[in-house]
Amino acid sequence: MNKKKLTWISLVLALILALSMTIMGCEPKQPDPSDSSQPAASDKTEPAPPESKATEPEEPKERVFTDSVGREVTIPTKLMRIAPSGPLAQMVLYTAAPDLLCGTARPFSDTQLKLINKKYGDLPAFGQFYGKSGDFNLEAVLAANTEVIIDIGEAKKTIKEDMDGMQEQINTPTIFIEATFAGMPKTYRDLGELIGDNARTEVLAKYCEETLALCKKAKAEVPQEKVVKVYWASGDLGLSTNAVGSFHSELLDYIPVVNVADVEASSKGGGSEVSMEQILQWNPDYLLVDGAALAEEIKKDPAWGALEAVKNDKIIIIPSVPYGFMGYPPSINRYLGVRWLGATFYPQIYIDSPEKQVKDFFKLFYSIEVDDAQLAEILAGTFE
């Protein structure tokens, strides 16, 4: 082998060696087990598993409500269908939560349905638990899928036994909420707790508080000699009246006015019977008259004509739409009567006009908006 051939072979071998070293340098470097700076295979970080969302606890289906006489009653957590035990309860519940009513004590009249949403005229009527009729239809209450029966008013001596008895008879929660004239703010707040929503009831409670504050202000600031004297004429001849101390005349003390009929108070709805001679002797500043028809009879009667109030045309008709402004029935409508009469007699304290007082109350409590023509008829006792 000559020298030139050996040189060529050496060059080929050198090229092969160089290529081998280049290929080996491109391979990934294997970790040295003895090198502590390299992480062990078991130390590799695995991706974290997705967090499992915590399951929120379900809202209890039932809760316990303590009513105004201390009875603990289990009711659905969210009430959807409530039944009034009578007309007073119906009125308050209609102002607080009308869409929860599954029935009424008495159907709304055609006159009332001219003002309120006609859908409420389609509700079944259950009758009333207390009162002369005592015609509360428990079968109709059950058929309406009632979740709770609510009685609102003054506590009867047997109220606990009555409520327990009705509850046991038809296995439906039955609750009593006390409602007195001065206690209406608390009544609405109790109802808010009962139905589980106080957004509306708190507004109504505050209105009642403001009304009571105006009454307190009037009693403190109106001199006794300036307090208006009134006679409340009821019945066919106007000789029935709600005397001092009667349940129905209670609101007159708050306005304040002097009720001249200081005679024995009757517990009956028709009031106390008095004579024309007594009325002439009392000589009231104003006559408060139940209805336009009676007002016309009084104006035509010579006996009544002897009164200064009649001579001076100081006869005020008590409106009755959608309910009597002063107590028929004696429920939340009496707050309207206080504002309306208060603004009539003491505008310096009650500020807004009687007409505005009526419009504001209608809108807030009954969700009724009336125009001036309708209002004029309501105040004149001619709206039908």
Q: Would you mind describing this structure in some detail?
A:
The chain has 2 domains: 150 residues, Nitrogenase molybdenum iron protein domain (Rossmann fold), CATH 3.40.50.1980; 159 residues, Nitrogenase molybdenum iron protein domain (Rossmann fold, 3-Layer(aba) Sandwich). It is 41% helix and 11% strand. It is elongated and about 95 Å long. The longest helix has 24 residues. It has a 4-stranded parallel beta sheet. Strands 3-4-5 form a 3-stranded parallel beta sheet, with helices on both faces. Strands 1-2 form a two-stranded antiparallel ribbon. It starts with a helix and ends with a helix. The chain has 384 residues and is an alpha/beta fold. The N terminus is likely disordered. Helix 6 runs antiparallel to helix 7.
